[in-house]
TrEMBL record:
Official protein name in the record: Glutamate 5-kinase
NCBIfam families in alphabetical order: proB (TIGR01027)
Top enzyme category: transferase
Pathway, per record: Amino-acid biosynthesis; L-proline biosynthesis; L-glutamate 5-semialdehyde from L-glutamate: step 1/2
Localisation per UniProt entry: Cytoplasm
Keyword Transferase in record: yes
Binding site for ATP: 17, 176-177
UniProt EC number: 2.7.2.11
Species, as recorded: Corynebacterium coyleae
């Protein structure tokens, strides 16, 4: 057994993400039999002393049949209506399945704006922690009833990665309908299975596809989520739901994504880069970009060529290079109105109260070292 698979097998706190196809039958209806098998495997893992948080897709799909929908809705209002019906049904099935073991479940519905606000993210973290302390299993889903395109995580794979880092999970298990990562569609002749991903170089030849008829994720979303979680210090196991017993036991299935020793982002920097709502934009010259991407350097006014947005001191801002390339994010120390008069000026040209960095190195995170 590899060290990483052994680590996942013995992890004390894990997030298990289920795709829509893992929860519904061929007609798109939620399958109690499928969920029962999943819960049996989760309960076996809990019996070994592991805390488990479930991230469950399927709300929109679960609402399709009751509403007489034959295909997944495309317009926002119908998606939200289907989710409002489906969330109730999905929660009932999860609750009934865990009740066989005398265990309570708690539904936690999140939007991107919940994770984007530090205070609301902490509230979600406290709720998940309290459910764990009380022996209940949190069932997390994106709140598709109220989420708009601007408020969405994009898919529940990304949501699971953010939840895993939010609760400092020891592992994330991504389950779908594919047994592992391949360099192309596994149905194609000559497709090569990839057992481990250590760096982005291991993915250079991979052609990942989109989601199926009932889902939105697809392998591309899962790879992106796995890399995201790994950047936050959470190792990932990706495999098929039919392998859930092995995945939650010895972990000798699927593809594992390694974290990078010494490259783990702090919880704040991970949140700032991947979850926080950016309230504005800072544009840098080439010299400032080079300094920021080296790491450990604060951003000064002299390297800023332009600003956008009505941000305030303490807000998170997006940092862009001369060609609008994304450099990173940080917590800005000045209001937009004050900063506008400081652009391009050396510190010794500014009044003493404006000589502190625009973004201090401790509150600046860049994308340069991403996995």
């Amino acid at each position: 057994m590899s060290d990483l698979r052994s680590q996942i097998a013995s992890a004390r706190r894990i997030v298990v993400k289920l795709g829509t196809s893992s929860l519904v039958d061929d007609t798109g209806q939620v399958s109690p039999a499928k969920i029962d098998r999943i819960v049996d495997a989760i309960e076996a893992r809990i019996a070994r002393g592991t805390d488990v948080v479930v991230v469950s897709s399927g709300a929109i799909a679960a609402g399709m049949v009751p509403l007489g929908l034959k295909t997944r809705p495309r317009d926002l209002a119908t998606k939200q209506a289907a989710a409002s019906v489906g969330q109730i049904h999905l929660a009932q099935v999860w609750g009934a399945s865990f009740a066989r073991y005398g265990r309570a479940t708690g539904q936690v519905l999140l939007t991107q704006s919940d994770a984007g606000s530090r205070e609301r993210a902490r509230n979600a973290q406290r709720t998940l922690e309290r459910l764990r302390q009380m022996g209940a299993v949190p069932i997390v889903n994106e709140n598709d009833t109220v989420a708009t395109s601007e408020m969405r995580f994009g898919d529940n794979d990304r949501l699971s990665a953010i939840v895993a880092t939010l609760i400092a999970a020891d592992a994330l298990v991504l389950l779908s309908d594919v047994d592992a990562l391949y360099d192309r569609n596994p149905a194609e002749p000559g497709a090569v299975r990839i057992d481990e991903v250590r760096t982005g170089k291991d993915l250079e030849a991979v052609q990942a596809g989109d989601g199926g008829v009932f889902g939105t994720g697809g392998m591309a979303a899962k790879v992106s989520a796995a890399r995201l979680a790994a950047r936050g210090g959470v190792p990932v196991l990706l495999t098929a739901t039919e392998n859930i017993d092995a995945a939650l036991d010895h972990a000798q299935v699927g593809t594992v994504f390694h974290t990078r020793p010494g490259r783990k982002l702090s919880a704040w920097k991970f949140w700032a880069l991947y979850a926080a709502d950016a309230e504005g934009v800072l544009r840098l010259d080439e010299g400032a970009v080079e300094a920021v991407t080296r790491g450990g350097t604060s951003l000064l006014a002299v390297g800023i060529t332009g600003i956008e947005g009505e941000f305030h001191a303490g807000d998170i801002v997006e940092i862009l290079g001369p060609d609008s390339e994304a450099i990173g994010r940080g917590e800005v120390a000045y209001d937009a109105a004050e900063l506008a008069g400081m652009l391009g000026r050396h510190s010794d040209e500014l009044p003493e109260q404006q000589r502190r960095p625009v973004v201090h190195a401790d509150y600046l995170s860049n994308y340069a070292s991403r996995l």
